[in-house]
Amino acid sequence: MISLQATRATRNHMTVPKMAAPKQASRDSRAKMAAPSSCGPALSLRVVAECGLSKARACELRLPHGPVLSPVFMPVGTQGTMKGITARQLEGLGCRICLGNTYHLGMRPGPELIKQANGLHGFMNWQQNLLTDSGGFQMVSLVELSEVTEEGVRFRSPYDGEEILLMPEKSIEIQNALGSDIMMQLDDVVSSTVTGPRVEEAMYRSIRWLDRCIAANSKPDKQNLFAIIQGGLDPALRTKCLEEMTQRDVPGFAIGGLSGGEAKDHFWKMVTLSTDRLPRGKPRYLMGVGYATDLVVCVALGCDMFDCVFPTRTARFGSALVPWGSLPVKNKQFAKDFRPIDENCGCPTCRRYSRAFLHALFRSETAALHLLTVHNIAYQLNLMQSIRESIVEQRFPQFVQDFMRTMYGSQERYPPWAVEALASVNITLE
Amino acid sequence: MKLSLSKVVSGCRLGTLTNLGKNGVQTMELPGCLLYTKTGSPPHLTHDTLQAIKGVPAVVQLTLSTLVELHEVMEEYKEGIGKFIGMPESVLYCSLHDPGTPCPPGYNNNKTVSIWGYGGRMEMTASKFMSMQRALQPDWLQCLSDGDTISGETTRKRAKKSVDRSLSFLDECLQLQKKSPELQGSVMVGVIEGGDVLEERLRSAKETAKRPVGGFLLDGFQGQAMAKETKLKLMASVTAELPEDKPRLIHGIGKPDEVLECIERGVDVFESFFPYQVTERGCALSFSYNYNPDPEAAVIKQNGIQDAGKNGTEKDINETSKADPEITLFEIFLKEKRYRDDFGPLVHGCTCYCCQNHSRAYVHHLLVTNELLAGVLLMMHNFQHYFSFFHSIRDALRDDRLDQLKELIFRQAL
Q1: A199 and A232 Cβ atoms separated by less than 8 Å
Q2: Most exposed among A196, A326, B308, B336, judged by the fewest C-beta atoms under 10 Å?
Q3: Per UniProt, which keywords does this protein have (chain B) (predicted)?
Q4: A54 to each of A4, A51, A238, A284, A312, how far by Cα in Å?
Q5: Which residues of A touch B49 (CB under 8 A)?
Q6: Which chain A residues are within 8 Å of B340, Cβ to Cβ?
Q7: Between vectors from CA B271 to CA B269 and to CA B274, what angle results, nearest 5°?
């Protein structure tokens, strides 16, 4: 097992074309703060603190629509809306970056209209940062409708049956029209449960598509294009992909192709392999991860940014997230439970409403969905803030201990993969 | 509760209700409307989004039909429905039925009235009804009453029964209220029934007025069964029999022109389910209530009257959905194709959260994609628009400009 020290040294020697070498922060980052390093014309990253034990770090990203503190969870507002909550409510919860989806918005209302509306920011009146996915994931989720060739992805539109070809160039064109602060390359996404030559093909194709995406970006000074590392669960393929993609001049990297149905044991190993080989001075975005335990572990493994539909989706299905799991408030057991979801939560829902009221409301009123969505987003953002504070205050390993105990109760219940993953970065759970 | 009238103009009463609520410090301007809720929540709205609306009424309407399943829960909770629903400061009025959903006829009898909850029909005796009210502890409550006269073909006999039963329920409930410590601060609203039979309506009004009620509800004027002429004549006859110093409520009337007609016949308090219905059909209220001459002409041109007049024309309708036949001329249907790239606010000059922050195009997109935010934004706009309308009625009465307002509203109803 490569020691952490050596890994960091290796990263320092990797060539990244056209980028000033980031200032080296000492491991004792309480003493000195690193200056922000430019990852590109539209993004700079400053490592504010690093955990002395694990690979966790707290950073400040500067994006066109303002600073974002990491580790950060980004809620998903697929169709240009955070489901039932207003932009003002979302901002009020402390959200400074959220997601929109190129596939959906590209279909409805379409890039021309959004361009007329001054981009997605103007269309939905969201003045904080936006990240758009490329439409690639829909290849996996809508796989009956799609066919992948070197050209691009062919979809059959579920709305009007028309065939659409989504090429890397087209995806970037749409994202340029959307005007998102961070755009994702179009990648050849394969489900993490697929094995065999298709995985390798997809990995190499993703590299070629990355180059096409970089070439197609008409606004590199305003919009950051992130690469997406593929390679499935194969360490050799992942490593190859990392080697290649880190040679490209992109402001940030995402770790893709995970958080599908794969076993957690394989999942974390691919995450840590990736962060070992990604540059320290650029953000690491782990796509599709949002369960609390996964967030904590993957922060320990060196990831900075996360997105997931889970918190907002589970809210609409009547479940509230809490530090010890989740409360299905729509269930009968909560009918006479007059406590708030979490008495330690200061969100607007917990300050005013009880589980019993949410239970009663859920049966028939959309307001219940909105109240739960507000709480779940607050939960996720508060979790990330707590993680971040603990890193800055040099007590992240203790935070992890406390988190796990609160979530699982006792050590026997800790998920083995999490225990292993944390141990791999020197956090031994007691 | 105290009602002070400052003016009566052409039958319209301008005044204020004071000493409202548990602390006795709340007030309500008349004529006015209540805040419509379902299961204790304004539809689609949380406390935060409700707070962003200007002019929210001080009095909230709860409906027994959406709360009846919570009887046991509220008995255990003990602290009253206001706190339970997150509105501890509001004045609460509990009516029997939800105005949106008409009750199937034929289920009431001498001893019970049927309430239609989410779980189905529940029979309420006076005793069970008051037991529920003791658990809810509203500030005002509509007395248990038999209003099953709106389905058409109501015989004289049936009209008489509605009056007899309702008076009987009133007397029984008043007795039960005396014995209920939880309801000592609550105001009983007497319900005037009688269908479309003048004699019965007058009897109901006179008899109800003899009881120690705090206000009156003109019931049975919902629906389409009664001819408009009859409705309005009966309303005027009823209010003529009622004391001046107690508020007159009505259910089931929501359209701006109809609201004005009722105010002219002595009605003070209305519901606000109408903006909710408008929201549910993907529409935004767009009618003008700005009765000041010239600027108003420009506003009408910009907003609803041109748009509204063309609601539902074939070439404009998005082929995946048809306009609701209930759409009135007071609203615009935002799913129409023409709004797809209209980046103006829902209504020019509107100061609501939606109009200040979003465009017709955005709301159109939300409707087309079936996003929850559509309901939220439309409800915010529609409530504010409606509350502002009532504000303008009061202003018009104060300024002696009721005729202008009437003319403006009725012009838009054509």
Answers
A1: yes
A2: A196
A3: Cytoplasm, Membrane, Metal-binding, Mitochondrion, Mitochondrion outer membrane, tRNA processing, Zinc
A4: 9, 6, 22, 15, 29
A5: 86, 89, 370
A6: 109, 113
A7: 140
Residue B335, both tokens? 């799913």
The tens digit of pLDDT for each residue in B86-112 reads 999 999 999 999 998 888 999 999 999
The tokens describing B286, both together, are: 């767009």
Q: How long is chain A?
A: 430
Give ipTM to 2 decimals. Answer: 0.94
Mutate to test the interface with B, among A86, A116, A353 (most CBs of B within 10 A): A86
* B32, B250 Cβ separation under 8 angstroms: no
Residue B115's Cβ-count burial label (10 Å; 0-12, 13-18, 19+) is: buried
pLDDT at position A6:
37
Say which DSSP state B410 is in: H
Here the tokens at position A59 are 């950073």
In terms of pLDDT, which residue wins out, A290 or B303?
Answer: A290
User: Looking at A187, A304, A307, A342, which residue is catalytic?
Assistant: A307
User: Looking at chain B, how many residues does it have?
Assistant: 414
Q: Which residues have C-beta within 8 Å of that of residue A347, sequence separation ≥ 6?
A: A93, A374, A375, A378, A379, A382
C-beta separation of A75 from A311 below 8 A: yes
pLDDT tens track, chain A, 430 positions: 333 333 343 333 333 333 343 444 444 444 445 678 999 999 999 999 999 999 999 999 999 999 999 999 999 999 999 999 999 999 999 999 999 999 899 989 999 999 999 999 999 999 999 999 998 787 667 656 678 899 999 877 777 778 888 999 999 999 999 999 999 999 998 888 888 999 999 999 999 999 999 999 999 999 999 999 999 999 999 999 999 999 999 999 999 999 888 899 999 999 999 999 999 999 999 999 999 999 999 999 999 999 999 999 999 999 999 999 999 999 999 999 999 999 999 999 999 999 999 999 999 999 999 999 999 999 999 999 999 999 999 999 999 999 999 999 999 999 999 999 999 999 999 8
E strand spans, B290-345: 331-333
Query: Is A422 within 8 Å of A300 (Cβ atoms)?
Result: yes
Chain A contact for B76 (CB, 8 A cutoff): yes
Output b/e per residue, A312-322; b: 16+ Cβ within 10 A.
bebbbebbbbb
Q: Tens of pLDDT along B220-263?
A: 999 888 999 999 999 999 999 999 999 999 999 999 999 999 99
DSSP B298: H
CA dist B59 to B17, B357, B382, B393, Å? 11, 28, 18, 18
Could you tell me the two tokens for A317? Answer: 């299905």
Q: What angle do CA A256, A261, A264 make, to 5 degrees?
A: 80
Which residue from A84, A349, A356 is facing B373, i.e. has the nearest CB?
A84
- Is A225 in contact with A172 (CB distance < 8 Å)? yes
Element (H, E) at A340: none
- Beta strands B215-218 and B248-250, pairing class: parallel
* Token duo for residue B119: 């779980």
- Residue among A268, A243, A246, A245 nearest A258 (CA): A268
Q: Which amino acid is at B117?
A: G
Contacts of B376 in chain A (CB under 8 A): 84-86, 366, 370
pLDDT, residue A23, reads 40
Burial pattern A36-74, b for ≥16 Cβ within 10 A else e, equals bbebbebbbbbbbbbbebbbbbbbbbebbbeebbbbbbb
The answer to whether A260 and A49 are in contact (CB under 8 A) is no
B80 in helix, strand or coil?
Answer: coil
Strand extents, DSSP E, B219-328: 248-250, 269-270, 283-285
